[in-house]
Specification:
alpha+beta; five-stranded antiparallel beta sheet
Length: 214
């Protein structure tokens, strides 16, 4: 029950129609794109995320939101929903776990956040600034939900971009092996309901971005 309430806050009062005893994790699917932002001196300053939610979550999340044009939503109309999402994500470390030269990266409060609605899907855009910009030869960024309630997968096209990075910097993306429906059903909903973030079970399904600079 506590997990359901937390996720309700996180995903803006979603009732989770799939969350029946026979269903398997995950319950929400996100297609991601990420940008690593550099300052002119070569230091890393922020990570920008664009998360596109599955159509079922998107359809539920927009229920009750007033719209001027049927079937369309402006950023202003979605502003309150965006704020709820981003504010709630802080408790979960924005599902973003980074190391710079093998040292844990510390992020500040998110900024420049907004929701877009296109092709019947919501996309949450936000920037995670580093508390202190860092000149680093290596960045390791893992994106995942420790409880595997949310499944993250990176877009097949333009999934990672280095913005303003030194010319010799290179990025790679390692995608996780996805859990099959059969595997999830075998583990059962009760197994997932007992998970908490500290157990970090979902780390085995992390998407891993690596950036190397000379």
């Amino acid at each position: 029950m506590i997990k359901t309430l937390l996720r309700t806050l996180l995903f803006a009062l979603m009732l989770l129609p799939l969350a029946s005893p026979a269903s398997a994790h995950p319950h929400v699917w996100v297609t991601a794109k990420s940008e690593i932002v550099y300052a002119p001196d070569g230091s890393i300053t922020a990570i920008r995320h664009a998360w596109t939610f599955d159509d079922m979550y998107s359809a539920f999340a927009i229920q009750g939101i007033e719209q001027k044009t049927k079937g369309q939503f402006t950023r202003e109309e979605l502003a309150e929903l965006a704020e709820i999402n981003v504010t709630s994500l802080k408790e979960f470390d924005f599902f973003s776990f980074a190391k710079l030269d093998d040292k844990k990266a510390e992020f500040g409060d998110p900024k420049d956040y907004h929701l877009d609605y296109k092709n019947e899907a919501l996309t949450l855009n936000f920037t995670l600034p580093l508390k202190t910009p860092v000149k680093a030869k290596s960045l390791e960024l893992e994106m995942y939900d420790p409880s595997y309630y949310v499944d993250f997968s990176f877009s097949e096209k333009d999934s990672i971009a280095l913005i303003g990075a030194p010319a010799a910097c290179k990025s790679t993306l390692a995608r996780p092996q996805e859990m099959t429906v059969q595997q999830g059903q075998r583990l059962g909903e009760s197994f997932f309901n007992q998970l908490n973030s500290s157990q970090n079970w979902g780390a085995q399904f992390a998407n891993k971005i690596a950036v190397k600079c000379p």
